[in-house]
From TrEMBL:
Broad enzyme group: transferase
Record-linked PANTHER family: ACETYLTRANSFERASE, ACETYLTRANSFERASE YPEA
Organism: Desulfitobacterium metallireducens DSM 15288
Superkingdom of origin organism: Bacteria
Gene Ontology CC annotation, any one: cytoplasm
Entry protein name: [Ribosomal protein bS18]-alanine N-acetyltransferase
GO molecular function per UniProt: protein-N-terminal-alanine acetyltransferase activity
Keywords: Acyltransferase, Cytoplasm, Transferase
Family: Belongs to the acetyltransferase family. RimI subfamily.
Pfam hit, one: Acetyltransf_1
Chain ranges of the N-acetyltransferase domain: 1-145
Catalytic activity entry: N-terminal L-alanyl-[ribosomal protein bS18] + acetyl-CoA = N-terminal N(alpha)-acetyl-L-alanyl-[ribosomal protein bS18] + CoA + H(+)
Subcellular location, record wording: Cytoplasm
EC code: 2.3.1.266
């Protein structure tokens, strides 16, 4: 089940966040997103009452800017990332979103393959975008109507 994230989820979210990213967000960063950012939407994927992944985005005009997506390591490789993203994409399309974008590390082929399966296409590159290792970011976009036709 995909549902909105709550502050109660944060202990579990922080475990997944730390297991997933070299420069994890702080709990306060999530709290600010959940309580103060009117553009932010954060979702959890729950399987049998256990949160196994999450995804966040900013809904600005008709566009979704994805801030993060992660699946707990022990649940990876079972297409849960695709389930979560497809569900959020469908939900946001119903709310009037037309397209989504994200940045992904140039070396993160696993995530790039997932995004391509969902219809995202490469639109550009930000040189040295990631401050920890100066790695480039690839910018990807998807038109949600094209995704809806497939999904
Ligand atoms: C990117 C991510 C969300 C994908 O979620 P997922 O549910 O594992 O996605 P999939 O099930 O489609 O599996 C992805 C690939 O990992 C492979 N895989 C298999 N078992 C795996 C395991 N135990 N752990 C990791 N990957 C595994 C799958 O075979 C698949 O390969 P393919 O793309 O060649 O088919 C997840 O890997 C993740 O949380 N990564 C860390 C955070 C991250 O990079 N987020 C994206 C930032 S832009």
């Amino acid at each position: 089940m995909v549902r909105l994230m709550k502050e109660d989820d944060l202990e579990r979210i922080m475990k997944i966040e730390h297991a997933s990213f070299p420069t994890p967000w702080s709990p306060q960063a999530f709290i600010t997103e959940l309580t103060e950012n009117e553009y932010a939407r954060y979702f959890c994927l729950e399987i049998g009452e256990k949160v196994i992944g999450y995804m966040g985005l900013w809904f600005i005009l008709e566009e979704g800017h994805i801030t993060n997506v992660a699946i707990a390591p022990e649940f990876r490789g079972q297409r849960f990332g695709e389930l979560l993203m497809r569900s959020v994409m469908q939900r946001m399309q119903v709310e009037g979103m037309e397209r989504m974008t994200l940045e992904v590390r140039a070396s993160n082929y696993t995530a790039q393959r997932l995004y391509e399966r969902l219809g995202f296409v490469l639109a550009g590159r930000r040189k040295g975008y990631y401050s920890d290792n100066r790695e480039d970011a690839l910018i990807m976009w998807v038109e949600l109507d094209s995704m809806g036709a497939k999904g």
